[in-house]
Design brief:
This protein has 263 residues and is an alpha/beta fold. The chain folds into 2 domains: 141 residues, 3-Layer(aba) Sandwich (Rossmann fold); 111 residues, Rossmann fold. Helix content is 41%, strand content 19%. The chain contains 11 helices and 12 strands. Helix 1 crosses helix 10. The chain binds D-glutamic acid.
Length: 263
């Protein structure tokens, strides 16, 4: 890996910024190209075939255009559907984002865990296999949310989102099983940490919200190897929307990059 590597961070929208934020904390020296495939958002409402057909060639074009040293698929829906074909097709290393079922089940004391993801992610065999392999003694409730990613995008764009809209999406995560209650919820979509404060405020009882972003960032740092450049020397960053639009509240996006951004 070069001393100052180039990272391509990819999501269907702005959720991947929650992963980027952790990566740039560890590697402020990396050059970052963030691509939001908003022209095809939301992936969670699409079929596996459609997402593979969209993402695999698009990532090929982005690799050709930006020559990244490493690609982060900062989207659970895209990772669970496309990591295998991407790794088979391209030589560059990929880091994916898949539902954090193993750490959630390890952390749960009540052994009742919910997985909150897009409708597509919770439907996939990939996710069900993670539960079979890693749930151990936990009872896992899969909750597919049709609207929460779009609500998070809207909130980041400065549009008002009601508590009722959010609560309707998260309510099925809170399960009472006799006297035993869910105590951990996996944030299995990178958009959801954007709403974390509101999720905590609306929860019927306190739970651990499991966000895998710091672990993903550590994995990226390990693969990049070497030490980060001294703090205060962040490299340039680029934000690309596949629709070609400009974000209505681009100022709200800057803190995720921790540096000036060309859009
Ligand atoms: N950010 C995506 C994920 O992590 C989902 C958003 C979408 O439905 O496109 O699953």
């Amino acid at each position: 890996m070069p001393a100052s590597p180039t990272l391509l961070v990819f999501d269907s929208g702005l959720g991947g910024l929650t992963v980027l934020r952790e990566i740039v904390r560890l590697r402020p020296d990396a050059r970052v190209v963030y691509v939001a495939d908003d022209a095809f958002f939301p992936y969670g409402q699409r079929s596996e075939e459609a997402v593979i057909g969209r993402v695999v060639p698009l990532i090929g074009e982005l690799i050709a255009a930006h020559a990244p040293d490493l690609v982060v698929i900062a989207c659970n829906t895209a990772s669970t559907m496309t990591l295998a074909p991407l790794r088979a097709r391209y030589k560059v290393p990929f880091v994916g984002t898949v539902p954090a079922i193993k750490p959630a089940c390890a952390a749960s004391r009540t052994k009742r865990v919910s997985v909150l993801g897009t409708s597509a992610t919770v439907r996939l065999e990939y996710t069900r296999a993670l539960i079979r392999d890693f749930a151990q003694a936990c009872k896992v409730t899969l909750v597919g949310s049709a609207h929460l990613a779009a609500l998070a995008e809207a909130a980041l764009g400065g549009r008002p989102i009601s508590d009722q809209q959010i609560f309707a999406e998260i309510a099925p995560c809170f399960v009472k099983d006799g006297g035993v209650r869910t105590d951990a919820v996996v944030l299995a979509c990178t958009h959801y940490p954007l709403l974390l404060d509101r999720l905590k405020a609306l929860a019927p009882w306190p739970v651990d919200w499991i966000d895998p972003a710091p672990a993903i960032a550590r994995r990226v740092a390990t693969l990049l190897g070497g030490a980060a450049a001294p703090a205060g020397s962040p490299r340039d960053a680029q934000l690309i929307f596949t629709s070609g639009r400009r974000h209505p509240a681009s100022g709200a996006l800057l803190p995720f990059f921790g540096r000036p951004v060309a859009a």
